[in-house]
Amino acid sequence: MASKKQSPSLAVLQKAYKLMCTAKAMTDIYEKNKDITSKYVHATSRGHEAVQIAMGIQLRPEDWVSPYYRDDALLLGIGMTPYELMLQLMAKKDDPFSGGRSYYSHPSLRRDDMPKILHQSSATGMQAIPTTGVAMGVQYLEKQ
Questions:
Q1: 46 CB contacts (<8 Å, ≥6 apart)?
Q2: Beta bridge partners of 64
Q3: CA distances from 115 to 4, 10, 48, 112 (A)
Q4: 116 with 110: CB under 8 angstroms?
Q5: For residues 99 and 113, what is the distance between their CA atoms, to the nearest angstrom?
Q6: Which of 22, 19, 26, 24 minimizes the C-alpha distance to 89?
Q7: Would you place residue 102 in the very low, low, confident or very high pLDDT band (cuts 50, 70, 90)?
Q8: pLDDT at residue number 12
Q9: What is the pLDDT, as a whole number, of residue 120?
């Protein structure tokens, strides 16, 4: 028997659209002001917004996620604000990830109301090793 496919609610679609527009606006601001916002290298989520937001809005506070440096839209999807992301980009003391002590676009987060994020490495793909450890830890705890 085939299962009936459930469509997302209008509220979810509107939220996703708003977040996609926000991600695009942030990218436009960063690119327009690249001499200020990208003194070194800052890659945005341009072109990845839809998949990142779709994933981000489905994650729950008990989930773990390992984004990489181009996952701004994913961070918006889990509930981070543009202001918080810009604090981190500019290494400000109120940066929610590290208090301005970590290289930008390397999020780490442990809030009760959001998915947990391990601190990230700069090398693309290096999320796989610590994330595998988290998965193994979760599996171990579930079997206890």
A1: 24, 27
A2: 116
A3: 29, 24, 20, 8
A4: yes
A5: 19
A6: 26
A7: confident
A8: 94
A9: 77
Residue 143 has a pLDDT of 96
How confident is the model at residue 124, as a pLDDT?
A: 75
DSSP code per residue over 64-120: EE---TT-HHHHHHHT--HHHHHHHHTT-TT-TTTTT-S-TT---B--TTS-EEPPP
What DSSP designation does 117 have? E
Q: Could you say which of 3.20.20.70, 3.40.50.970, 3.30.300.230, 2.60.40.10 is the CATH number of the domain covering 10-143? A: 3.40.50.970
pLDDT digits (tens, 9 = 90+) for 107-135: 889 999 999 998 877 777 788 888 899 99
- Please report, as a single letter, which amino acid is at residue 94: D
Q: Which residue has the tokens 């290289």?
A: 103
Token readout for 37 is 């916002």
**Calpha distance 96→9 (Å, rounded):** 31
Mean pLDDT of 8-31: 92
Maximal C-alpha separation, the chain? 58
